[in-house]
Amino acid sequence: MPLSSTSLSEWTDPDVLPAAEAAALLAGAPWTRLATLGDSVAEGVREPVPGYRDLSWADRVEEALRAVTPGLAALNLGRRDRVAAQVAAEQLGPALAFGPDLAIIAAGGNDMLRPHFDADEVRRELTSIVSTLRATGADVVTIGLFDLTSAGLGPVRYREVMSARTRLLNDIAAEVAAAHDACHVTTPYDHPTAADPAIYSADRLHLNARGHAFAAANTVRTLATRYLASE
Prior knowledge:
The protein has helices at about 20-25, 40-45, 55-70, 85-100, 110, 120-135, 160-180, 210-230; strands at about 35-40, 75, 100-105, 140-145, 185. By secondary structure, the chain is α/β, with parallel strands linked by helices.
């Protein structure tokens, strides 16, 4: 069960984009092949929440894009527990074989949770993934992580370190994206919902279905602003 209950539903939640609105924001999107790479965030690990469709953020982005392009082909390669080097080694090849024109990457979170966080290694692996996909002509998006410590989660004695690592990882992902003319979905640190423990699953690590709906809205808006606003 979620950490706390909510009387909201996705039809009344102001932080959730209704499917029709998400599709409208992505009207004119050129993409026909979507690949998602990464760890449990990419895979969409979550718990259901009453009043919300049991969909991951990636499912919702795919749904909105498919409403625009009914023939959209999508491949989600995300697998839980993978560090960035494993994402590069195991998923980049299949992604390239799939031939996406849009690739979304969520990786580095498991590196961050290790006793020693090698930020330089994560930067190298993300650079390899992003640059290789960009070289094919694909648009690439990196995903920022929520700082779960802002919701009062995580062991108290490690919260300061976890928060600093989360923000460093997000900065790295944003810098890698900028260096390769890719797009980064910025984490809404200051948004009240980002600090609400009710968007997390009982494992106190992954978002639940409500959290995924919130993350999807943030991702769709970023895609629309970055790629479609001037068209």
